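Feature request, filed as a ticket because there's no other form

It would be nice if the structure record came with a short human-readable summary line next to the tokens. Right now we just get the raw output. Example of a typical job, pasted below so the devs can see what we mean:
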Amino acid sequence: MIKEMKNITIEVNLKDAKTLNEEIKNSVSAYDEITLNNVYGQRYIGSGINQDVKININGVPGNDLGAYMDGPEIEVFSNAQDAIGNTMNKGRIIVHGSCGDTTGYAMRGGEIFIKGSVGYRVGIHMKEYLDMKPVIVIGSSAGDFLGEYMAGGIIILLGIGVAKEDQLTGKYLGTGMHGGVMYVNGTLPEYKLGKEIKKVELDNNDKKVIKNYIQQYKKYFKYTKDINIDSFSKYVAADKNPYHLLYIKN
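Raw output as currently delivered:
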């Protein structure tokens, strides 16, 4: 017997964030899919939800979209503001546009796919534990401090529509990084890199990972052009414990 999917549409307009989020949380148990129309910067949408529900957003959601969430899939048919996926544990966020700063702040699991570009300090403090490995896939470019203090997980920068390799990111890539991996479509000049990371060669497993997430990106955003996996470079932490000398004597 096929389960009937239950859907609800909420007209958001000028509802304040508290009212809207109470309405969403009261709906997740009764509905499989929630569509929000006319979203105008309301914050915390989907935050703290731990149920298997799809949330579609027509409009621009505010800061902390999907913060601390643990299961939902959120699809944004526009841009999104800052700190989406803040400390999320599980689930997926798909953004058909660009995102602001601190996307994926302290992510502990789940996936974020962004069609366009992102701002500063994206993936800061990402971490992983056991089988929880957060992933951020960025379609175009990123600002300064991508992967800052990154302790785990994966960041993939596809560079779609970026004319030159030195425009893929801002400066200080991976500053303070001590875990995880970043894959960039191109090779970054040395002055873009933080002192705590190093470039290493791709292996076959890396190529499988990149291919898998490129295929997902193409599916979500209906992107049809080829992306050359062999053109990617890989960046990892140069030292798993870069700050140990702060706490011990020579």
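Something like this underneath would help us a lot:
The domain at 98-242 is CATH 2.160.20.60 (Pectate Lyase C-like).
The two ends are 69 Å apart (CA to CA).
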